TrEMBL record:
GO terms for molecular function: ABC-type transporter activity; ATP binding; ATP hydrolysis activity. Keywords: ATP-binding, Cell inner membrane, Cell membrane, Membrane, Nucleotide-binding, Transport. PROSITE patterns: ABC_TRANSPORTER_1 (PS00211), ABC_TRANSPORTER_2 (PS50893). InterPro entries: AAA+_ATPase, ABC_transporter-like_ATP-bd, ABC_transporter-like_CS, ABC_transpr_MalK/UgpC-like, Mo/tungstate-bd_C_term_dom, P-loop_NTPase. The keyword Nucleotide-binding applies. Residues 8-243 form the ABC transporter domain. It comes from the Bacteria. It holds the Pfam family ABC_tran. This is Spermidine/putrescine ABC transporter ATP-binding protein. GO terms for cellular component: ATP-binding cassette (ABC) transporter complex, substrate-binding subunit-containing. The keyword ATP-binding applies. SMART domains: AAA.
Amino acid sequence: MKHTFDRLRLSSVHRSFANAEGEQVAALKGLDLDIERGEFIALLGPSGCGKSTALNCIAGLQPLTGGEIWLDDQRIDVLPPEKRGFGMVFQNYALFPHMSVLDNVGFGLKMRGMGKSEIERRARAALQLVQLVGHESKLPGQLSGGQQQRVAIARAIVIEPPVVLMDEPLSNLDTKLRIEMRAEIRRIHGGLDRATIYVTHDQDEALSMADRIVVMREGVVQQVASPKEVYCRPKNLHVARFMGYRNVLPCTLERAAGEAVEVSAGGVPLVGTPMEALESKSAMIAIRPDDLVRAEAGTPNAFGVHVDVVEYGGRDSLLLVSAPFGKMWARVEGEFVQGERVTLAISRERALVYRPEAAS
Ligand code: ATP
């Protein structure tokens, strides 16, 4: 078992399952991915897109139906999970309820035949890293959810795996603890110089934790990029929708102008940023509710709207408005009343223009 590596490479990984009718249905359709040592990678996508399948294929818990996985110059998809030696953390912690915290953490080392004092030394060091010193002799049931998940993380890292795989590890925790644990997991990752591959369907989690995000849909990678890139420049409409570009409206292409593109939407001229090659006059414009701002009439990229619904949000309000080109959501600072007419504007950089859905 390798403790360190430079690159984990997934090459054209396929995984199919037989459905009830006995037909093969593909959960992963040719996954290519290079992961460097030290990286924190999030696999992000809606339920059923193949995230857990990808993680299980990397761990060796499921065989591939095509493709290869390499750890540097060693092909590992042919190895059983214990030979790969990756650490795994699951949503449900999967701790042994009748074993102490220390014994839970040391279990993997015991299975490897390590001596008692060395197991204890390493298990204590792992518990120190996850900040659970003082809890060694407790049973898992005596710990909070967040503490139990930290035990699970200590157990995964104590074997000094080259790669730690985490499948929605925070889903069972309440919101406050989830947010605390994000930072905690990042901190633990930072102390390891290994790779972490983290499965989540939560955009905020992926954005706040990952060095790179792999956005998946129906077994196919849509985009691999930094959190900022995925957030600000989603590669296609599917990624845009998933990343919170809630307003996706049809428009007509008028003129390409360097890095900008002029479109009209419901008769309103708008300047946006083209995100892919636009091959016909018909296009879609994608806008995040938070990127709309209140503006004076006559401002570039401004349009008048009728406020249909107001959801008070303290500092800002979430509005459902009728614009000349359709209904849209806007999260705007200040207070509003239903029935009011206001002018909203969007900057050119934040109005993203894509090909229509069927063609993308
Ligand atoms: P979730 O977030 O809901 O866990 P996911 O993105 O992790 O979803 P997977 O669990 O990888 O998705 O599932 C991908 C596809 O493969 C789904 O269509 C699922 O129904 C199918 N699938 C997964 N495991 C099996 C299995 N053991 N037998 C048959 N089909 C499966």
